[in-house]
Write a structure and sequence with these properties.
128 residues, 3-stranded antiparallel beta sheet, two-stranded parallel sheet, globular
C-alpha cells in the first residue's frame, strides 16, 4: 500500500529492496552504506548513486507506514562515512531537513541508532 503516493512499480520495488539491503548491511555490522554502494547492491547500472532519491523517499515512507526505523538515513556520503560520522550528503538537505525522510540533521544520528538496534531478523515479510 502506497497511500496517496504516486510511485512507479520500479520505484516501489527498489524502495523495498533498499529496506532489505540496509537491513542486511546492519545485520552484517556495517555502520552505513554509501550512495554508490546502495546503487551497486540494487543492481543499478549507474553506481555513482544518482537516481536514488525517489527510492530513498519511498523507502522512508514505507518504513513510516510499517512503524520501522527509517533506513533512508543509513545511506550516506562516502566522506562522512570515512570520517566516522555517517551523514546523508549535503545536497540531500533542504531547509534543514533531510528530504528523503523529513529528519533534521541533528535527529539523524538518533534515527541511525534506532536502525542499528532494530531486530531486522524479526522483520515481517515486506511483500511487494
Amino acid at each position: 500500500m502506497t497511500g496517496d503516493r504516486d510511485v512507479t512499480p520500479l520505484t516501489r520495488q527498489r524502495a523495498l529492496a533498499t529496506i532489505q539491503v540496509v537491513a542486511e548491511a546492519v545485520l552484517a555490522g556495517e555502520p552505513a552504506l554509501t550512495y554508490s554502494e546502495l546503487a551497486r547492491r540494487l543492481g543499478m547500472t549507474k553506481v555513482n548513486g544518482q537516481g536514488l532519491k525517489s527510492y530513498l523517499s519511498e523507502a522512508a515512507a514505507i518504513c513510516a507506514e510499517r512503524n520501522l526505523p527509517n533506513v533512508a538515513c543509513m545511506v550516506v556520503s562516502k566522506d562522512s562515512l570515512d570520517q566516522g560520522a555517517p551523514m546523508p550528503s549535503e545536497g540531500s538537505f533542504s531547509d534543514g531537513l533531510y528530504a528523503a525522510s523529513g529528519l533534521t540533521r541533528e535527529a539523524i544520528p538518533e534515527e541511525q541508532a534506532r536502525v542499528r538496534s532494530f531486530d531486522w531478523r524479526a522483520m515481517p515479510d515486506l511483500g511487494q
